[in-house]
Specification:
Blueprint: E1 31-40, E2 43-52, E3 61-68, H1 75-78, E4 79-81, H2 83-91, E5 95-96, H3 98-106, H4 112-130, H5 137-190, H6 202-211
Parallel strand pairs: 1-5
Antiparallel strand pairs: 1-2, 2-3, 3-4
Length: 212
């Protein structure tokens, strides 16, 4: 990427906002548009900068392009951008980070990197679908929840089947016991009653009466 044209900046861009030492004439470098965290603890806001991709995070910037305040309640004030400079850097080949890309799209600034990212995500999603794998965290959580519900349902069905089997077994044993009881009672009724051996017969009782 050639930065010779960077020195021809619009009048509304302050010279102090551009790091000219980093923009040597004829030098080619990779540029990223990314956020730099500012503010204090529990009250952050972020600057949107054009930076050399080789510099560490929050390192030297090439140009300040705006800021993003996620805590601001007024949506119109959450994002402030130098739209012309952002479009300039995008046209020069600067690559926005995923977060900056989403911010730009919400501000109506379309760029080819968002389209490329969407195409890559669509391809990755299709591959994940083909392999039966979740694509993102939400899908993974949903898949785990569905698997857990299926496991609980299978467990409940197995317990219900076991309880039904035990009930059938208990009823069969009760029916068998009742049948054996009926058979035993029928057998008892069909057997002749035996008279006591020491009991006197009726003739003997009559003879004893005559003797008296």
């Amino acid at each position: 990427m050639n930065f010779a044209n960077v020195f021809r900046c619009p009048d509304n861009v302050g010279m102090a906002e551009i790091d000219h030492k980093a923009l040597k004439k004829g030098k080619t470098m990779a540029v990223k548009l990314r956020l730099m965290r500012m503010g204090r603890r529990h009250r952050p806001f972020f600057r949107i900068n054009a930076v050399d991709a080789r510099t560490p995070r929050d390192g030297r910037i090439l140009e300040k392009l705006g800021h993003y305040d996620p805590i601001e309640k007024d949506p119109a004030k959450q994002v402030v951008l130098k739209r012309e400079r952002v479009e300039y850097w995008l046209n020069e080949g600067a690559v926005p980070s995923d977060t900056v890309s989403q911010i730009l799209l919400r501000q109506g600034i379309k760029h080819k990197y968002a389209e490329q990212r969407s195409a890559r995500r669509a391809k990755a999603r299709a591959l994940a679908r083909a392999k039966g794998r979740p694509f993102n965290k939400a899908e993974r959580i949903a898949a785990e929840k569905a698997a857990k519900q299926a496991e609980e349902k299978a467990k409940a069905e197995a317990e219900a089947a076991k309880a039904a089997e035990e009930k059938v077994k208990a009823e069969a044993e009760a029916a068998k016991a009742a049948e054996e009881k009926v058979k035993a009672e029928a057998k008892t009724k069909s057997e002749p009653k035996e008279e006591p051996q020491n009991a006197p017969s009726s003739g003997q009782q009559a003879d004893k009466g005559d003797e008296t």
